[in-house]
Amino acid sequence: MVRTRYFFSETFTSLKRNFFMGFTAITTVAITLFIVGFFAIIVYDIQGIMSSIKSQVELRVYLKDNISEELKEYIEQEIISWEETESVEYVSKDIALERFKKQMEGSNILKEIDGNPLPASFDITLNNPEKIDQVELRFYDRDGNFIEGVDDVIYERKVVKPLFSITAIIGTIAFLIIIVLLLAAIVLIFNTIRLSIYARRKEIEVMKLVGATNWFVRIPFLFEGFFEGFIGSIISIILLFFIGNFLLIKGERAIVDIMRIKELAIVGSGNVMLYVYVGVLVLGGLIGILSSVIALRRYVKV
Amino acid sequence: MNMIEFKNISKIYEDNTVALKKINLVIRKGEFLFLVGPSGSGKSTFIKLLIKEIDESNGNIYIAGRNISNLKSSRIPQLRRNIGCVFQDYKLLPNRTVFENVAFALEVIGKPTYEIKIRVPQVLKLVGLYSKLNSYPHQLSAGEQQRVSIARAFVNRPPILLADEPTGNLDPGTSEGIMKILSRINLIGTTVLMATHDRNIVNSMRRRVVELEEGEIIRDQKRGVYGD
Questions:
Q1: Which of A52, A242, B62, B135 is disulfide-compatible with B139, CB 3.0–4.6 A?
Q2: For position A301, what pLDDT does the model report?
Q3: What is the pLDDT of residue A302?
Q4: So what's the pLDDT on residue B114?
Q5: Residue B91 to residue A205, Cβ atoms within 8 A
Q6: Would you say the pTM of this structure is higher than 0.80?
Q7: Where are the alpha helices (DSSP H) in chain A?
Q8: Partner-chain contact A210 B91, CB within 8 Å
Q9: Could you tell me whether strands B191-196 and B32-36 are parallel, antiparallel, or unpaired per DSSP bridges?
Q10: Do B77 and A205 lie within an 8 Å CB cutoff?
Q11: In this structure, what DSSP letter does residue A129 have?
Q12: Would you call B106 helix, strand, or coil by DSSP?
């Protein structure tokens, strides 16, 4: 137990003695992991917004004017029962005309309209917009004609397809940025810890000279690397907590109000922030130890 | 008893410089030996081989009868605990006090605290620095710093003490003080091997002198002088 005590006291006295290097390493860990964590939250929210935009894609089913009330009810119940359906809204001929008038306000077209040429429709919002093709097919019979009572089915084909590929591109770019940031963080932290070990190569030289075993030389440095990584990540978690709960949360609330999006990092129901904190903590500790291991391999073989 | 024995030791560095050529030498327990010769004659190589900082190209080295030439690297720390080392540049840690510098040598080989508290003051008394145990190296004179370095090398009571130009940076008066301490350590029974350029010291001590030139022993003399 004498040794365990030595390792602990050596770790702390050496942190005290090499305050500047230790401080630099801790600050580096704190700042880089904060940036990575911050970016992870932003990317999560962008993903949330994108997928919510995708889910707001609507399918519109125009009904024939002469459709019976029973058939209309039947089709509506049918649509509601599908698992792909998020919500369905019945737009009667009157409402359709009203909306059209609003859209076209001031235009000459309105003067030329006689009566109500607009059809009634069901506006369907899907929970998985990528299944839009399959849902569309249900309004056709075997011969490729529309089923009874349905006049036409439309959705904004041209908008939907590019939207999916844009989302995929943004997702990939965001992922790459996080990876690059993470690599930069690792290199930066590694260099700082390596520098702090390099600054103490004389100490290592003396230890080797008086017959300290390799592990005896290494362990205090490993403790120190872990400690620096750990403290650094605690600081970055505190920063993330305050930035998240006092700044980002305002933006997220605004997004919720405007777009009715549920899955956001801070205001959402998932414990996204908890995962970010744990991730930062694990990363900090691991990078600290690994940096020490690699740096020691260079300086301990005297 | 033979403390150190070199049998046909050659050392050729990677750049093909030949540092030592077929050296045969026996140093007996309790001997005080000067290793002299111009720079580049192989003195430092000699010392580095003994602590296995480098490996010989040929031959065998025996310490206390044991062949260290095929020592496993995991056994090197054990070897070094039995050989104290003193250098021209002291190799003290600037951010530790005199006491801490000496104690460091015991801490890192896992000695318990109570033993450190007894041994460090003892050895500091031996080198005459007991009153300065809380000073930092930069607060000491060059001679005092070298005495701390000797204390650190000897605190574990190794049977062998190696000194590589220990007076190289010191004036004659201070050097004399260092030699007194080394003699005292030798009197306790420690085998002392000192590489030096210092003509006056060698001539005044009248101990065994081994002279190296271009990697070969050209003189081995009991109670010798530095030479011409």
A1: B135
A2: 63
A3: 44
A4: 94
A5: yes
A6: no
A7: 2-17, 19-55, 69-81, 93-103, 109-112, 132-137, 157-198, 201-209, 214-243, 249-259, 272-299
A8: no
A9: parallel
A10: no
A11: G
A12: helix
